[in-house]
Design a protein that fits this description.
alpha/beta, 7-stranded parallel β-sheet, 41% helix
């Protein structure tokens, strides 16, 4: 890395993107956030002297070329929410293709990408039940691997932060509940591992599973979290019949229905140690209970 740490982010206004950006700023990075609407993004980052907002649209290669002209380190925090593998434009596939066309090959040194663990841990569910966003991510990853640009792909398990993000009217509804353990990780631990990957030759051209150390079922983890964060919160499994009915009337909920089906069959393996995540990027520092305590304290500030 240069003496002055700089990184460009596409997807800085997403849930995890905002948290990662905050940690990068705290670590001393100057951040260029490429956004479709800089004026709208002002409300998130307008008070941050270390953040520069520039216009760029994944569907517009020309705007990306201008935004990425001087970029050396690029972090992609993209998402794809669809059940159609043939969708004409997906951020994590066609969007990635446009980014690869737009980056300045004379300047770019590394592209880092957030992904899902299901795009790393393949063949754990029948092909017919594969989660389409993971299939699309995998297609985007193939483009990145063939680009010749040093890459680092961070395949994340469930975030502890999802408990508060998906809380509705005093209830947390579990999607795809099963009795297999999930190795939840906090966004802050993920961000620390991301920071250690930036400009790190050990992390070039590698895929890392991003997981916490403790395996708990979704229900066990949610109940342990809310016992600390807010004991009045009700934890329940979202009934499949209700999901199906709601999905019939709402296209966005069709993705939730597909996610529910996928995670009922998905069995997460503990892979972080085996594949060098902890060795290269550091071990998670916070337990689920410690993070719940931290988030509760922050919510009262």
């Amino acid at each position: 890395m240069k003496a002055e740490k700089e990184i460009t982010i596409i997807g800085a206004t997403g849930k995890i993107g905002m948290l990662a950006t905050s940690h990068l700023i705290q670590d001393g990075f100057r951040v260029k956030a490429v956004v479709r609407d800089p004026e709208k993004a002002e409300r998130y980052f307008g008070q941050e002297d270390q953040v520069e907002l520039v216009h760029g649209d994944l569907t517009d290669t020309g705007s990306l070329e201008k935004a990425l002209l001087d970029t050396e380190y690029l972090y992609l925090n993209l998402s794809t929410m669809t059940i159609d593998i043939k969708v004409p434009f997906a951020n994590e596939r066609e969007g990635v293709a446009n980014i690869l066309k737009a980056v300045n090959r004379d300047r770019i040194k590394q592209i880092l990408v957030i992904s899902g663990l299901g795009a790393f841990q393949k063949n754990v569910v029948p092909e017919k039940d594969m989660f389409v966003p993971n299939l699309i991510r995998m297609q985007g990853h193939d483009l990145l691997r063939k680009s010749g640009i040093p890459y680092t792909i961070l395949h994340c398990t469930w975030f502890i932060d999802s408990f508060t993000a998906y809380l509705r009217k005093g209830t947390y509804s579990i999607i795809g509940s099963n009795d297999f353990p999930i190795y939840f990780i906090s966004a802050s631990d993920y961000s620390r591992q991301l920071i250690r990957a930036i400009g790190n030759p050990e992390a070039f051209n590698k895929d890392y599973p991003i997981q916490g150390k403790e395996g708990l079922t979704h229900k066990e983890a949610a109940e342990a979290f809310f016992r600390i964060y807010s004991p009045d919160i009700k934890v329940q499994k979202m009934p499949g019949g209700i999901i199906g009915l709601m999905a019939f009337f709402n296209n966005q909920l069709k993705v939730v229905k597909a996610m529910d089906r996928y995670f009922k069959r998905y069995r997460e393996e503990f892979l972080a140690e085996k594949h060098g995540t902890y060795k290269d990027l550091g071990e998670p520092q916070l337990t689920l209970e410690e993070y719940a305590t931290q988030l509760k304290a922050e919510s009262k500030i």
